[in-house]
Design brief:
The complex is a heterodimer of chains A (216) and B (384). Chain A is built from seven helices and seven strands, in the order ααβαβαββαβααββ. Chain A has a seven-stranded mixed sheet with strand order 3-2-1-4-5-7-6, with helices on both faces. Chain A has a single domain, classed as Vaccinia Virus protein VP39 (Rossmann fold). Chain A is an alpha/beta fold and 216 residues long. Chain B is built from 15 helices and ten strands. In chain B, the strands form three sheets. Chain B has a five-stranded mixed sheet with strand order 1-3-2-4-5. In chain B, α1 packs across α2, α4 packs parallel to α5 and α8 packs antiparallel against α9. The chains are: A alpha/beta (216), B alpha/beta (384). The interface between A and B is medium-sized, with 19 and 28 residues.
Chain lengths: 216, 384
Amino acid sequence: MKVLESTPNRYDRGICILTLGRLDKTYDRLASHIREGQRVLDLGCGTGALTLRAAQKGARVKGIDINAQMLDIARKRVAEANLVPNIELLEMGVAELGSEKSESYDAVMAGLCFSELTEDELTYTLREIKRILKPEGLLLIGDEVRPKGTSRLILNWLIRFPLVIITYLLTQTTTNAVKNLPEKIEEAGFVIDSVTLSKIGNFIELVVSKPQGGAN
Amino acid sequence: MNLVRFLAVNIVGTLLRVLPFPCKTGLVKIGNPDRNSPVLLTCNYHLTVERVKRALRGINAYLLLANSRGINVWCASAGGLFTNHDVISVLKTSGIEELVDRRDLILPQLAATGVESKVIGEKTGWKVYWGPVRANDIPAFIKDKCQKSPEMREIDFPFMQRIEMAVAWAFSISVILTLFTIPLWREAVFPLIFLVWALSLLIFVSFPLYSRWLGPEGKRMGFILFDFGRGGFQLILWGVVILSLIIYSIAAGDFRWGFILRWGFVTSIIVVLLSIDLMGSTPVYKSGLHEDRLLRIILDEKKCKGAALCEGVCPRNCYEVDRDRHIATIPGASRCVQCGACIVQCPLDALYFKSPKGGIITPEAVRRYKLNLIGRRLVKVEGR
């Protein structure tokens, strides 16, 4: 069954079409918040787009993903970029974040990760991120969201529908937009520092921080 | 109300069987479960979920729905879309750990090709019990304290399932054909739909009559039409159709060669479409389309200690375990559909695949890349 074939080698291209190429710039902006020597966790690191950017800033990065084939590609890219000492890549899901130490990270990044999660997983992940972040630590998000307002929803659907079809035919990949992401983040006890929405409101860039003394 | 939903999901799910059909993941309570009730887990394919819920009527249990991307258990786990991670995730994020005291989890047996009981145990502390193949056997399985009879382990292709397959193919092919014929050849739409459904039902209903000629060995790709051995079942079927066309036109008193030729051509296409990967459309044979993936299961007798996990997860009852000599044998190897479940679960790595060209696919490769990627990985694996 063609539908079933995991296609990591085509993933990057697929996502590039789906997001109309805006992802690279988003990732650059998100990585600009990373400082040298910081400890960073990249959730759903995939082929390593955000992991590499953060490591280039001089951070020590741990990238986790559940897709072994994606991680194979990420490892190759890490080796090519000569960043092996700074990067640890693990096949691990967000549900295993319980094994990470509390307040051990300066920043957590999630590029197109939350849109892959179920509702239960998202709630759990936000709670765990809050636990493992140091006070004033950052949560950096770039993801697809469900636009608000009927006209935007329809516009988004019209633009997205052909893109989804093309992308699916070429790469058999797709994503599901997240509903009410900023609200869910605030509910989890984070403070949103900045929100950048795309024009149609279907892509969000979020810089979020854990309040001081807000460790549960 | 439940019955209406059950029927609706069954009808839609059967017609659109070739497409994923997801439902919400997470925890579902069946009856009034308490802290000692059994915990079962299945995929989030809507049709499966409705059938499992129905099978569990009258039982108090927790049902966890893991994210298999709306695909059924067997396809999703063999295709790498229903993995350890999805099971771990629903155990950790659904809140089930606060609701029960024991850490016993019943998984569908067919998930054994993608989910490793050992990893689940190590990472979560939950002990995996491989449940029966069919949801209807779950109550008996629970009553028997997680014991399975050989019948409960074995996949077959009974009448109702064959009808479902026939309907799934007939519906999707008639939708596509209708889209093409409406602008091009309108008067043929209804005869075509009739033919598609009739032939599809004929092919799948009569399956037991010809299945003994279907062979597990590879066939040359050029002959996918004659997908099974010396068979040529499609030719026979097509001959029957032509014969009935001739009889029909003579009986109608209006015999014309043009009519026979035109409909003979159309029916040949339909027969080919419907039976192009007949073996792959059944759960009891491996698809004949990818000859290079027709792998053979090999047991390394030096490593085998008779742990018998293979016997418990094999959906074709290929294994026999000698419990005195502590060793497994594979007397039913010819029935193997190469699902890989035994290789994935074997705690001693005593099983592996051998490709037609002699290459070896290690347990590690099967676990890591799942079945659908092995085909692509073969070149690399063989090159070592």
